[in-house]
Amino acid sequence: MTAYSAAFSGPTVGDLLASPPFPGGFDLAAVYNVALQYQGVPYVYGGNTPAGFDCSGYVQYVFAQFGVSLPHSSSGQGAMGTPISLADAQPGDLVIMDGHDGFYAGNGNILHAPYEGASVRVQPIWTGDYTIVRLGI
Question: Which parts of the sequence belong to the NlpC/P60 domain (predicted)?
Answer without folding.
Answer: 25-137
